[in-house]
Amino acid sequence: MKQADCYDESTNGVVVMVEPYSQREQIQQVVYRILDANLDRVREGLRIIEEWCRFGLNSSQLAGECKRMRQEVASWHTAELRAARDTPGDAGTELTHPQEEQRASIKSLLQANFCRVEEALRVLEEYGKLYRPNMGKAFKQMRYRVYTLESNLMGYQRHQLLLRSRLYLVTSPTENLLETVEAALKGGLTLVQYRDKNADDATRIALAEKLRQLCHSYNAIFIINDRVDLALAVDADGVHLGQQDMPIAIARQLLGPHRLIGRSTTNSDEMQRAIAEGADYIGVGPVYETPTKIGKPAAGLEYVNYAAKHCSIPWFAIGGIDPNNINDVIDAGAQRVAVVRSIMQAEQPTLVTQYFLSQLNRIQPSPEKSYV
Ligand SMILES: Cc1ncc(COP(=O)(O)OP(=O)(O)O)c(N)n1
Ligand SMILES: Cc1nc(C(=O)O)sc1CCOP(=O)(O)O
Ligand SMILES: [Mg+2]
């Protein structure tokens, strides 16, 4: 109705007959309500994402992009759209999905809100065409900006976590793989690589899916050893490639700019090539000879020392590192280490993880050198 329904206090109970909306006007009101609700939805979702960019990632660039989009959305939220709001009459306000009540991680919280924003933008794009000639186009463009923001944010987030990660667990096949990895995650581990040289692909995919979920529920990075196709299949955070594995340039083409690529290196030439080819991190080793990689001669603490002086990207000393020699490796200049047996074969993986981290966290983080 355009005026008070039937009873109006201002007329002391005198019934005022009002002219009903025409069918066309009723439809217009519905469109206004849809636009009003979805403009709010986009702004709320962007605000939730913006808070993480600002306080969680300290990224004024990503937070600024969220803010600019919120302001643009606000400029479309006219008084007539707001006036159409009818919250008590909205049949959708009580509909919630059980997953809205619970979020497993920051990643799933962000993904849920990106999804909400993108859906609402699509609604604004379609119904907006009925309201203003250029509204559909404006929200289509914004939807693409949000896709770009999502991809940048997820990539940035991964990279930040890589920079903060001091300990890297490379798994070996065992019956209680998930339990052992979870125990290490409970000890504060933030970087895991799934490595199994012998399992068939079906087994690898099934285990990798479970490991990815587990790692992400602890806000840890999940990497696949050797296989770019498996990394894509299970939506891993990246891949680790040795000198005989796929060239980095091809892996980058397949994985896109935001997933991580690690490379094994044994000497300064391999290190410098890996950096030039765009690796996100390198393995530096074997520091000591190890039964986990039979036949690979030790590169020794000298190479660790070289990496400490010359490596411009995050690097992990690997090979034969255990609680007894970790301090020698640290003294040679390592700030990050990768281990297999020390955690996979530990009786108490949580305690061993905590011990490694306690030693590694004693070192002041020095920025990666900007020269090689
Ligand atoms: C962190 C890390 N560093 C080195 C390796 C070894 O990779 P590669 O040389 O390809 O040997 P395999 O692991 O495939 O046997 C690694 N996996 N992780
Ligand atoms: C998988 C691997 N790569 C290495 C390299 O130097 O490239 S050493 C290594 C095995 C490390 O196992 P552990 O911690 O049990 O010694
Ligand atoms: Mg390999």
Automatic annotation (TrEMBL):
Class of the enzyme per the UniProt entry, highest EC level: transferase
Pathway: Cofactor biosynthesis; thiamine diphosphate biosynthesis; thiamine phosphate from 4-amino-2-methyl-5-diphosphomethylpyrimidine and 4-methyl-5-(2-phosphoethyl)-thiazole: step 1/1
Cofactor details (free text): Binds 1 Mg(2+) ion per subunit.
Residue positions binding Mg(2+): 226, 245
Gene Ontology annotations of biological process type: thiamine biosynthetic process; thiamine diphosphate biosynthetic process
Listed GO CC annotations: cytoplasm
Catalytic reaction equation(s): 2-[(2R,5Z)-2-carboxy-4-methylthiazol-5(2H)-ylidene]ethyl phosphate + 4-amino-2-methyl-5-(diphosphooxymethyl)pyrimidine + 2 H(+) = thiamine phosphate + CO2 + diphosphate; 4-methyl-5-(2-phosphooxyethyl)-thiazole + 4-amino-2-methyl-5-(diphosphooxymethyl)pyrimidine + H(+) = thiamine phosphate + diphosphate; 2-(2-carboxy-4-methylthiazol-5-yl)ethyl phosphate + 4-amino-2-methyl-5-(diphosphooxymethyl)pyrimidine + 2 H(+) = thiamine phosphate + CO2 + diphosphate
Domain ThiD2 per the UniProt entry, residue ranges: 33-151
Record's keyword terms, sorted: Magnesium, Metal-binding, Thiamine biosynthesis, Transferase
Keyword Transferase: yes
Signal peptide: none
Matches recorded under PANTHER family: THIAMINE-PHOSPHATE PYROPHOSPHORYLASE (PTHR20857), THIAMINE-PHOSPHATE SYNTHASE (PTHR20857:SF15)
Record-stated family: Belongs to the thiamine-phosphate synthase family.
Stated name of the protein: Thiamine-phosphate synthase
UniProt source species: Chlorogloeopsis fritschii PCC 6912
Gene: thiE
